[in-house]
TrEMBL record:
Glycosyltransferase 2-like domain residues: 16-149
Keyword set, alphabetical order: Endoplasmic reticulum, Glycosyltransferase, Membrane, Signal-anchor, Transferase, Transmembrane, Transmembrane helix
Pfam families in the record: Glycos_transf_2
Pathways involved: Protein modification; protein glycosylation
Family: Belongs to the glycosyltransferase 2 family.
Classification via InterPro entries: DPG_synthase, Glyco_trans_2-like, Nucleotide-diphossugar_trans
Domain of life of the native organism: Bacteria
The reaction(s) this protein catalyses: a di-trans,poly-cis-dolichyl phosphate + UDP-alpha-D-glucose = a di-trans,poly-cis-dolichyl beta-D-glucosyl phosphate + UDP
Protein name: dolichyl-phosphate beta-glucosyltransferase
Presence of keyword Flavoprotein: no
Source species of the chain: Streptomyces acidicola
Length: 816
């Protein structure tokens, strides 16, 4: 850098005008005349200086400034030996200024110098910066840019508002007035050399708590702009670099730790993802891999992603009613097609857990505590709590929950009432996306948020009074946006082909009270498989099991921090959610007494009737995580070493027993060569719509045939399957296809090993069922009671099967 040496601070002036200039020979002279003329005419005793920063110009820019200084010595020239960008030029100019106020303006004076008066008023009202805006009501655009440039500018500003400086509509207008000392501090700390410096400076002011006003100005596009199309990409690149640089090392380490925890949880499967299976998923891993595969197949062939007849033929499967997670399975299509559904599902679940933990961490740091260690611990509990680990075996829709903290934060922003329409639109888009990730988790999250809001409103009526109007308005905006976007998919789900009314889960889907205080099977230290199995539906539905030490710790935190409204609201939310999770009938432990539960009020209501009520206890996971973060933060701030030691010891004692062990994994059964090597194609004419019929038909208890189908790239259809579909005239939801006589017979043999008397009536019914299924061949793989199954099929078909490619095959084209 070169230029005039600046004097001591005693030469401070009222106003410094900084003009970055690169090859501005043709426009700079007029700009200097206009600026100096206006400042002289002000005649109010204001002292001023004009600093032109030549950014390595190759034309006569410097000569223009030199000539101007002869007539007006208050014009100064600062030079850079080479062109480095507007950001570098502004940094040189502002740091060389003496003004109590600093105006930065472009050499084209697209915003005329007379607009300085409006910015001055904002600064006089206590703002630290007043930035000219073309997008604020009251602004006047006298001459527009080219439509393409305007569109690029709007798109860029949208990204900038979302990622860097929310609430500022026009960051790039080259007419800004700053408090001098704060401007010099911000520009001295800046690092960007390009047009992105405007964003960096405004972000610095925001973080420092210095108020910024956006002031409407009169603006007219001037020819000779130095902005080129690639500069927009450069600004986005600088914005990305700025965002990355703003990430604290502790935050990055937290995310990496969450990723490591997720990988360790699934380590058994990642040893060999294509050939390992999570046995505690029961048949769900086969189902979910099939969901990912069929979604990718529908996308690549431009088929309806909401329906398929690959399973459950000929009736098919309503995919929207089966939570196929289109919000993940669709964008994962390239991975599914390239690496296969097993790896795609594994990545979705591993990265989904990581993203969920990172989102809870972000929310806790933003809204609850600043202490990173406390936030990390709370987010880890919210994400890797025992019920989350249980669902991590089999249910990605209940662990890929990264949208929930974002939705909660956006709802809280609505309560603040600053940008209601914008926040309502964002909330509507978030809710729409979450519907395509999982509707039941969204329903549970809404229940938790409602419980929290009611408790908070009762405790702080003043806050509720101020918040309910913007919240109601924002929720209305969100609803108006969301409903049209999801209307067709939801109509298909509830009224389309193979839709159903509700899924019945029996009378024992609620948690036992003991389950809330016991330990889950996969808790590393205190896990107890026998106890967990006795108190849960299955290994994928251990929906409580927080352990009594954590419950005791949470109680202590609530008592110790009871004066905080947020603690009261969290406590109410957690307790009510735990009570609701006990179901409509609550058995009193160690007695024969059963009392009505509060869930009875909801159990027969639309949507709620299909919810497994035990899952409501999952609401307690983030509640406990946030309470834990608050407790640790309070302990760290305590001035007493003894209190810190006892408190942190209690935290460790509560968490160590529930640290999750890696999920069980086993070697996966090989796909029979008959399927893997394509031998089936000689028996099933897919062009005529024929199906391959596994024996017995796949169902929720035995869905290995879904794995066969994905291994065969979904080239054949089959009846039966593992999905939710309607049954009977009432269209009650059941797991699997509607049963037929032959499928029921084979099912009974599969689970009992008893072959009934099979006469002409059974054989006639089997022929009807084979015709209904358009069966080309029956296929029996080695399995339990396979000898009995083989005998039953031989009697139904009237001839023995053939051993082909590791399976028994009955070609139905042959006459019996």
């Amino acid at each position: 850098m070169s230029g005039k040496t600046r004097g001591p601070r005693s030469h401070e002036v009222d106003l410094s005008v900084v003009i970055p200039a690169y090859n501005e020979e043709k426009r700079l002279g007029r700009a200097l005349d206009a600026i100096t003329g206006h400042l002289r005419e002000a005649g109010d005793g204001t002292t001023w200086e004009v600093i032109v920063v030549d950014d390595g110009s190759t034309d006569g820019t410097r000569d223009v400034v030199t000539a101007a200084t002869e007539a007006e010595p208050r014009i100064q020239l600062v030079t850079s030996p080479r062109n480095r960008g507007k950001g570098h030029a502004l940094r040189l100019g502002v740091c060389a200024s003496y003004g109590r106020r600093v105006l930065v303006t472009d050499a084209d004076l697209a915003a005329p110098i007379e607009e300085l008066e409006h910015l001055d008023k904002a600064l006089a009202d206590g703002q630290s910066a007043a930035i000219g805006s073309r997008a604020t009501p009251g602004a006047t655009i006298e001459r527009h840019q080219h439509p393409v440039r305007e569109a690029l500018g709007r798109a860029g500003n949208f990204l900038i508002r979302g990622l860097a400086v929310p609430g500022i509509r026009d960051t790039q207008c080259g007419f800004k007035l700053f408090d001098g000392e704060r401007a010099r501090e911000a520009f001295a700390a800046s690092r960007l050399d390009g047009f992105g410096i405007d964003i960096e400076i405004l972000q610095y002011f925001r973080r420092s708590g210095w108020p910024v006003a956006e002031v409407p100005v009169r603006w007219a596009h001037q020819s000779g702009s130095k902005i080129r199309p690639w500069d927009y990409a450069r600004v986005l690149g600088e914005l990305t670099a700025l965002k990355a640089r703003s990430v604290r090392r502790a935050d990055l380490l937290a995310v990496l730790a969450f990723l490591l925890m997720s990988v360790l949880l699934y380590s058994g499967r990642w040893i060999d993802p294509n050939h390992r299976y999570l046995p505690d998923s029961l048949q769900d891993q086969n189902q979910w891999e099939w969901f990912f595969a069929v979604t990718a197949d529908n996308v690549v062939h431009l088929r309806n992603p909401l329906f398929t007849t690959l399973q459950g033929f000929p009736d098919g499967v309503n995919l929207m009613a089966n939570t196929v997670m289109l919000g993940v399975s669709v964008p994962f299509t390239p991975i599914t097609l390239t690496l296969g559904p097993a790896i795609s599902l594994g990545l979705a679940m591993t990265l989904g857990l990581t993203a969920t933990a990172a989102a809870w961490y972000w929310l806790i740091v933003r809204r609850v505590v600043r202490n990173r260690a406390a936030a990390f611990t709370g987010a880890a509990l919210a994400t890797f709590a025992p019920p989350m680990v249980s669902h991590a075996n089999a249910h990605p829709n209940f662990i890929v929950l990264f949208m929930m903290p974002l939705i909660i934060d956006r709802a809280l922003r609505l309560c603040e009432g600053t940008r209601v329409r914008r926040d309502g639109i964002v909330l509507g888009l978030m809710a729409t996306y979450q519907i395509f990730l999982g509707e039941e988790p969204l329903l549970l999250a809404a229940m938790g948020m409602l419980l929290f809001a009611v408790a908070y409103a009762v405790a702080r009526r003043d806050v509720a009074k101020e918040s309910w109007r913007p919240l109601s308005k924002g929720l209305g905006v969100a609803l108006l946006l969301c409903l049209p976007l999801v209307a067709f998919p939801l109509a298909w789900q509830f009224f389309g082909p193979q839709s159903y009314k509700s899924v019945l889960h029996g009378d024992n889907a609620g948690n036992s009270p003991l389950a809330l205080f016991s330990f889950a099977e996969r808790s590393l230290v205190a896990g107890n498989e026998a106890t967990a199995s006795a108190l849960s539906l299955n290994p994928t539905e251990q929906n409580a099991f927080y352990g009594w030490p954590l419950a005791a710790l949470a109680f202590a935190i609530v008592i110790g921090l009871w004066e905080r409204t947020v603690v009261k609201a969290l406590a109410f939310t957690g307790v009510v959610a735990a009570l609701l999770s006990l179901g409509p009938k609550i058995p009193i432990p160690l007695t024969d007494t059963v009392i009505p539960g509060p869930w009875a009020l909801l159990s027969d209501k639309p949507l709620f009737e299909s919810v497994i009520e035990g899952r409501v206890a999952m609401i307690c996971a983030p509640v406990l995580g946030i309470l834990l973060a608050l407790g640790i933060d309070a302990l760290v701030k305590s001035p007493h070493i003894g209190t810190q030691f006892v408190g942190l010891t209690a935290v460790a004692a509560a968490l160590i027993p529930i640290v999750p062990a890696p999920l069980k994994s086993v070697e996966r059964p090989d796909v029979p060569a008959f399927i893997a090597d394509g031998m089936w194609k000689s028996y099933v004419d897919v062009k005529k719509g024929e199906t391959l019929v596994p024996v017995p038909l796949p169902d929720p208890g035995n869905a290995e045939a879904l794995h066969w189908q994905t291994a065969a790239h979904l080239e054949f259809r089959m009846p039966g399957g593992y999905f939710n579909g309607p049954y009977g005239e009432e269209r009650i939801g059941i797991y699997g296809a509607s049963p037929r006589y032959t499928s029921n017979l084979l099912y009974d043999v599969r689970y009992s090993g008893v072959v009934p008397e099979i006469g002409d009536n059974w054989r006639a019914q089997a022929r009807k069922d084979f015709a209904y299924w358009k069966a080309g061949a029956l296929v029996l793989a080695p399995q339990g009671y396979d000898a009995q199954l083989r005998e039953a099929v031989e009697k139904l078909v009237g001839r023995p099967g053939k051993w082909v490619g590791g399976v028994w095959v009955w070609d139905l084209h042959e006459e019996g």
